[in-house]
Design a protein that fits this description.
CATH superfamily of the largest domain: ATP-grasp fold, B domain
CATH class of the largest domain: Alpha Beta
Helix content: 25-40%
Largest sheet: 8 strands, mixed
Strand content: 15-25%
Distance between the termini: 30 Å
Number of domains: 3
Number of helices: 13
CATH architecture of the largest domain: 2-Layer Sandwich
Number of strands: 14
Length: 362
């Protein structure tokens, strides 16, 4: 049985019939101690078999692992390893040591350094060492050119910006499950349709053996145990490693249940189960929103509604989460009230702003 939790009551997943019970916890971002208190009470009271992180709360859980694991194992590696992979500057250094293909990278720790760094590349791409979800990407090329102004970006010594050449190619993403240095389940996917040219709203699995090779190198080198995801860019020269997300991502949506279950239980006879190509999923409400705010994309959106597979939430046997997608928008409204701003990037930020970790004290 599954016990679900989130930081707000209207979270769609908390209203699935597949959740035996659901809980609202304190925010791991703004009240880490209270969050751990909440999780500890839940795990103890319900004799939980396994604690499965779903986003960046994994850092708080790993930092306080001893308290959680008095009652149940945490499916995540050490905090130090999570930090190395999550911090884009640290990960870039680590990936180079492994011999992985990483774009040339300049590090800017102040506004002045950022202004200087972007002059080194005619077409550049920059983002903070702690960032996620395609938010606050500074670039002068591609569909996001000018979406974020230089004046909005403020690198610091604790959260610098990485500046790289803008590369043309296809974005590939992965999601994998690993047990003590072995990859047990793996999926590679693309997101043909995005919201505001950032996070995906349609998803399709593909087979790309090289993503598994790279994932295995990292997992074996580190003895990784838990869920791990990567972003790649594929061009004519091969695969560039863009970043690592040491947590689940949208790949969960296109990994078949049987592969996920076997990978999680480590019931694969020592093999890596690879998800087949062709599984498609979509977020229909996000596509409909896109038709309103990006009317020039209506033909593409209509095709996605018809051809992009099953909706992630619209399960006829479990329909309530679909309804809560609308109600959950109140969380975004709350974020806008806190910040006092309405921007292109705040839709995605509004859903996860209170479960992020940007390197601060825990």
């Amino acid at each position: 049985m599954v016990y679900a939790s989130d930081t707000f009551g209207s979270s769609p997943g908390n209203h699935s019939k597949h959740a035996r019970e659901r809980f609202v916890t304190a925010s791991p971002t703004f009240a880490a101690e209270a969050f751990i208190d909440d999780v500890e009470r839940i795990v103890e009271a319900h004799r939980t078999d396994l604690v499965m992180p779903a986003f960046e709360e994994v850092f708080v859980l790993a930092k306080h692992r001893a308290r959680i694991e008095r009652y149940a194992p945490l499916f995540a590696p050490s905090f130090d390893l999570l930090h190395t992979l999550h911090d884009k500057q640290r990960f870039t250094t680590f990936a180079r040591k492994l011999g992985l293909r990483v774009p040339e990278t300049l590090v800017a720790r102040s506004d002045a350094e950022l202004r200087e760094a972007i002059t080194h590349f005619p077409r550049y791409f920059a983002r903070a060492a702690y960032s996620r979800g395609g938010v606050t990407l500074l670039t002068n090329a591609g569909s996001l050119a000018g979406a974020v102004e230089l004046s909005e970006c403020h690198p610091t010594s604790t959260n610098p910006f990485l500046v790289q050449p803008f590369l043309e190619g296809t974005d590939l993403c992965t999601f994998s499950i690993a047990h003590h240095g072995r990859v047990t389940a793996h999926v590679t996917y693309v997101h043909p349709l995005t919201i505001e040219s950032a996070g995906g709203i349609t998803f399709e699995s593909i087979v790309e053996p090289r993503t598994l090779e790279i994932t295995r190198r990292v997992v074996e080198e580190t003895g990784y145990h838990g869920q791990i995801s990567f972003d790649f860019l594929r061009d004519d020269d091969g695969l560039h490693v863009v970043e690592c997300n040491p947590r689940p991502t949208a790949g969960l949506m296109v990994m078949p249940d049987a592969i996920f279950d076997a990978g999680l239980r480590d019931d694969t006879n020592g093999q890596t189960l690879v998800a087949p190509a062709g599984t498609r999923r979509k977020l229909s409400l996000a596509i409909l929103r896109n038709m309103v705010v990006q009317w020039k994309e209506i033909p593409e959106d209509l095709e996605a509604l018809v051809r992009a597979g099953k909706d992630v939430y619209a399960d006829p046997k479990d329909i309530v989460p679909l309804l809560y997608q609308l109600i959950a928008y109140s969380h975004v409204i709350g974020y806008r009230r806190k910040t006092g701003e309405v921007k292109r990037t705040d839709l995605m930020q509004g859903y996860f702003y209170d479960i992020c970790w940007d390197g601060g004290a825990l």
